Fold this sequence. Notes:
This protein is of the alpha+beta class. The protein folds into 2 domains: 54-173, no CATH class; 183-318. It contains 5 helices and 15 strands. The strands form 5 sheets. Strands 4-1-6-7 form a 4-stranded antiparallel sheet, with no helix packed on it. The protein has a 4-stranded antiparallel sheet with strand order 3-2-5-8, with no helix packed on it. Strands 9-12-13 form a 3-stranded antiparallel sheet, covered by helices on one side. Strand 10 (266-270) and strand 11 (275-279) form a beta hairpin. The chain is globular.
Amino acid sequence: MILAKNKFLFLVFWVLVTLGSCAQNNKNQENRSTEYRDKIKNIYKEVKTYDYNPIYQVRDEKFNCPMEIYINDVLAYYSNSEGKSAGEQNIDIPQYILKSGKQSIRIKIFPLLDKNKNLEKFVSKNALLTLRIVHGEYEDMKNWKNFKEVFRVQLPKVTIDVPYIELKGEFEAIIVPYELEGWSKGMDLSKEDPKKLEEEVLGRLKEIASLYETKDIEGLAREHYKRVKEVEQSMYNNTKENSAEWEKLMQESLDESLKTELLEGKMKIMGNSKIVTILVNKGSLFNQSIIRNRIEGGYSDYFDQYFYRPAPGARLEVIR
């Protein structure tokens, strides 16, 4: 009986110690659990505005013209749509412009998709495209006619069979009042072993996909903080409501009815060899992120993650 009593007392003591330890761990976990969520919510306090707050945009009108648009060698936009666009379309690009000065643009035009959702052999002979880059005051975005044009290109008539067409050019971003570090100090990824690099990128994408799968908003905030901070500055989002928008979008994206999937894809190095990702490389999902949330018979959300390596041997970090 004495032994049984002592054993019982020891068990009670062990349970109490364990509970106390768990409570402390839970308390510490609670203390850490909203650190980066709170940081993102408060980014608006760090966003600066100026006498002139320019937003740079690509504006295009097209017909039968699937295309990629690269700003400073970073994939900023892809569309595989056919037919005629409903007037001039706007694409905001300030997050790809790190500072004022000369910027590059590259447009790659693809064939239409066939009935099996694969690219046809040649660019459509009916393809039409007029594309320009403009900038204007952020607060005056509704008055698009006030925006100033700094670049324009038109696709020549397609008269021969070609698998793709590339148009290249430069434009001057004379006024960019802020300066973003972005990937500018990143390592040259073209010098790394491509097989090992692709394995590392896939590993990081699996880690982030797991955060979506487990609905870990704090984990996603930690991964995305640098990206969100720079994008918010590039868009002059200096209100509390704007800074709360990221978490609102995350909450919507992490609905319990959605299933996170990791698709197959191919590594893509860009940003003058300082940015890397893996994107779907065929079919109707071409150029989509390999991380997606899907609901059966419904819609899908795709989550781009562009990585860079901030220092030699450092872990790949999300930057766009």
